[in-house]
Amino acid sequence: MLCVLKEMYKKQLELDLEIANNHHISYEDTKDKRILALLVELGELANATRCFKFWSFKPSESKERVLDEYADGLHFLLSIGLAYHYQVDSIEVEEEKVEPTDAILRSYHYINEFYIDRSLTKYLMAFENYLKILASLGYSWSEADDAYFKKLEENHHRQDTNY
Description:
mainly alpha; all-alpha NTP pyrophosphatase fold; two-stranded antiparallel ribbon; globular
């Protein structure tokens, strides 16, 4: 699965600059907070999928809701890349047959590895493993791309309305 990111980084930078101006912050001031926010969003994604809730019969939340949570994580991964000057035009992801719980746990692992060693290699591993969650959920890159840009509009609106 080829995940094209170039336009996303450009649009994320615009949003990040708007947020920085509105809240008087910088990338340098918020690097750890962005990583924690990504981990929180990953938890919210897991909760929306309900993939780990072996004790419950309730199904996953709607596809739209799950993709919305996924898009939140994309926002923070892109923002972290911008904070560290790590940008790539695209990432090719080898799709594996893996359960969503395993894909999400792997993503936590690689995000934590990036937290410890903030190298480009660790960032790309974290990003690639986050992207692998899509296939485990049965979603396409096109759906994630659409969800990202929909959420981008919502995030700009939130900044305009003092969210």
